[in-house]
TrEMBL record:
Record InterPro entries: PI-PLC_domain (IPR051057), PLC-like_Pdiesterase_TIM-brl (IPR017946), PLipase_C_PInositol-sp_X_dom (IPR000909)
Domain annotation Phosphatidylinositol-specific phospholipase C X: ranges: 53-193
A biological process term (GO) from this entry: lipid metabolic process
Single Gene Ontology MF annotation: phosphoric diester hydrolase activity
Organism listed in the record: Capsicum annuum (Capsicum pepper)
Pfam families associated with the record: PI-PLC-X
PROSITE patterns associated with the record: PIPLC_X_DOMAIN (PS50007)
Name of the protein: Phosphatidylinositol-specific phospholipase C X domain-containing protein
Stored Gene3D superfamilies: Phosphatidylinositol (PI) phosphodiesterase
């Protein structure tokens, strides 16, 4: 018992030290980057406001959410805090400006996070359709994957094509160089990541897993994740020469050997430093590589940072 207690005390010190490193870096260098003070008038239609004729797919800094459909997962106040990564519904996320969704499903088409369950994926699809019906020029990247440890839902690719067919932008390398206007009236880049079923083929209405990449490091240490995100981003080609989407996730995750297992207090260790990460990317010469930027418990400030940097790219100030 004494050894375990000592281990946890040292772990707490490590976390506090890492938080202080990020805090000190923010105080020293600030968070001012091109577009940092830009505020779009209507987040629900922010792509429309940035002029779709000028907005190329590979110039967008896409605000995204991690484990997007977990707002009603598990049992409230009991199991939910262990798996909930978002408090807003899919529709609410899209309405505040989120444009990349990370959806996890299991065999019966229910949303899941590990062993905990949420609603059927139909809820996600209906929220997306509602949002698309209320907007005209907003493009969504919809990533749907089979959760680790589960089997693929039966005929799920056909389900996605039947439900979203009229909106689907077909898998095509040329999409990255196109403007939003050139993609319309299609509205969704749907990346389907099955565990065992065949991957979507080139030209398919669905996109294969090779088109959305990331380098996930499973840690609850904020500075460790911050540095890992920067390292892997630095190894990517610039967005203008890339034929895939690359995601950086401003998240840390609970660990089994630490007594703090609720998602919210753990992710709060790194959540405030999203703008610092953008600023550091630019100062270290990697500003032209940031593309999808995701977080737990998305808020308007995170969305505004992504939109502001996107606008700076369009205006040529980055």
């Amino acid at each position: 018992m004494g050894a375990e207690l000592s281990k946890q005390v040292e772990r707490r010190k490590d976390i506090d030290t890492q938080k202080k490193i990020l805090c000190d870096l923010e105080e020293k260098n600030g968070c001012n980057f091109p577009g940092c003070d830009y505020h779009v008038q209507d987040r629900k239609n922010w792509m429309s406001e940035l002029i779709p004729e000028k907005l190329h797919v590979n110039k967008i800094v896409w605000p995204g959410t991690h484990d997007s459909a977990t707002n009603e997962i598990g049992i409230p106040f009991i199991s939910r805090p262990f798996a909930q990564c978002q408090s807003l519904s899919i529709y609410q996320q899209l309405a505040i400006g989120v444009r990349v969704l990370d959806i996890r499903v299991q065999e019966d088409r229910r949303i899941c996070h590990g062993i905990l369950l949420c609603y059927n994926v139909d809820v996600v699809i209906n929220d997306i359709k509602k949002f698309l019906s209320e907007t005209h020029s907003e493009i969504i990247i919809l990533e749907i994957r089979t959760e680790f440890g589960h089997d693929d839902p039966l005929d799920f690719d056909k389900y996605l094509e039947d439900e979203l067919g009229e909106f689907l932008i077909h898998q095509d390398d040329n999409v990255f160089n196109k403007t939003i206007v050139e993609l319309l009236p299609k509205r969704i880049i749907c990346v389907w990541k099955p565990r065992k079923s065949p991957q979507p083929r080139q030209g398919s209405p669905l996109w294969s897993s090779n088109y959305l990449k990331d380098n996930w490091i499973d840690t609850d240490l904020p500075e460790k994740k911050f540095k890992s995100n920067m390292k892997y981003l630095s190894e990517q080609p610039p967005v203008t020469s890339r034929k895939f989407f690359y995601r950086v996730e401003n998240t840390v995750t609970p660990q089994a050997d630490n007594p703090v297992l609720w998602v919210k207090p753990v992710t709060d260790r790194i959540h405030p430093y999203a703008r610092l990460f953008i600023m550091e990317c630019i100062s270290q010469g990697y500003g032209d590589r940031l593309q999808i930027f995701s977080t737990d418990f998305i808020d308007e400030g995170f969305v505004d940072a992504c939109i502001g940097l996107t606008n700076a790219r369009i205006e040529g100030t980055l």
